[in-house]
Design goal:
4 helices, six-stranded antiparallel beta sheet, 2 domains, Alpha-Beta Plaits, alpha+beta, 159 residues, 35% helix
Length: 159
């Protein structure tokens, strides 16, 4: 049985492009319900990962993939529809947490690795975590903080 990677992609484009994307993912979602099978757009001939539990809400796509994110497929979709995107993914049991983005044709990806996850120490008798000597009640907040730091480091190293 696979671990599930949770994916959220915010697409950025004009209203026509976003409507076409919405129509695509609504159609894929309906196909998934009808067939009971995961989906991928027809123009992606060899999908990296299939889309499960597809939801389109406004300009944001929510879905799951088995084990890892499907960054390559999202990039192909964005290229096909000439849109930009910000893509967040999360599969903590496999030490996967990151963000990929493509804005104005510039792709970047920042993610946490196992070493980052090991800096978070769960309390075995309570619902809090120890990180940098402080108690935190949300693992999500810690992961987001570490990812923001990595993004800032990436920006500084590119200057």
């Amino acid at each position: 049985m696979p671990n599930w990677c949770y994916n959220m992609v915010e697409f950025i484009g004009d209203a026509t492009q976003l409507k076409e994307l919405g129509d695509l993912f609504i159609e894929l979602s309906q196909k998934e319900i009808e067939t009971g099978n995961a989906q991928s757009p027809d123009f992606i001939l060899e999908p990296d990962r299939f889309f499960f539990d597809i939801r389109w809400e406004g300009e944001v796509l929510y879905y799951e993939t088995k084990w890892t994110p499907n960054v390559i497929d999202v990039e192909k979709i964005a290229e096909h529809y000439c849109v930009d995107y910000i893509y967040n993914y999360d599969e903590r049991s496999m030490y996967i947490y990151g963000e990929a983005r493509s804005i104005d044709g510039v792709f970047s990806e920042v993610y946490l690795d196992q070493e980052d996850f090991e800096k978070i120490v769960p309390n075995e008798t309570s619902d809090w975590y120890l990180f940098e000597g402080e108690q935190w009640y949300s693992e999500e907040e810690i992961l987001e903080l570490m990812l923001e730091r990595k993004k800032a480091q990436a920006i500084q190293s590119n200057c």
